[in-house]
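Reviewers of the previous submission asked for a worked example of the structure-prediction workflow described in the proposal, so we include one complete record here. The input consisted solely of the amino acid sequence. No template or homolog information was supplied to the procedure at any stage.
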Amino acid sequence: MPFPPSLLTDDEELILDLRPHWWYLTPVSTALGLAIVVGLAALIAGWPGPVKALVGVLVLAAAVWWLAVFVKWNTTNFVVTNERVISRTGVIAKKGIEIPLDRINTVFFDQTLFERLIGAGDLGIESAGEGGRQTFTDIRRPNLVQNEIYRQKELLEERRLTRLGQAAAAAGSAADPGTGPSIPEQIDQLDELRRRGVLSDAEFEAKKRDLLDRM
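From that input alone, the workflow returned the following structure tokens.
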């Protein structure tokens, strides 16, 4: 099930939308296959009625188990946008986590030799905040996902620096071109841009610190 675009913000772009690796379904698929083989053997060999009934219950239970795991697989999304990393699962009862890119400190992955061969692995994210460290299992090509997260972090920082430069230029152009604004006046102008939503609180504080350091 694709990640709903309605959950993205106005300027947010979807970069990766991944379901768990197919290996996630292997154990339950193997169990269902074995149950079907036993069921066919019971029919062909003419096993006693009570045994056939027991085998039938086994096959039904394996089928229900497979369906439940498949639904969970199909409704699990690991998403990377140009602003966040998102993990969501569930249809009726849902759970998920969102990690802003600017709060991510480290991204690491772990693969066994077999997982490298099939292109699966675990991805870990260390971030600032209460969550601390989150681990996501059965990620497709986790090394490439790691690289993409770092790339999006760099692009996000570049966009913020660009916006900050534009805001500073806008603040400067509003002042007297002959004398130029004083540092307190520049801070007031930046604060006005913050109240209008042009700058975020974090961007305003960063620029204010930079201006105060010049005094």
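The chain has three domains: 5-20+78-150, 27-73, 178-215. We consider this example representative of the routine output the project will generate in years two and three.
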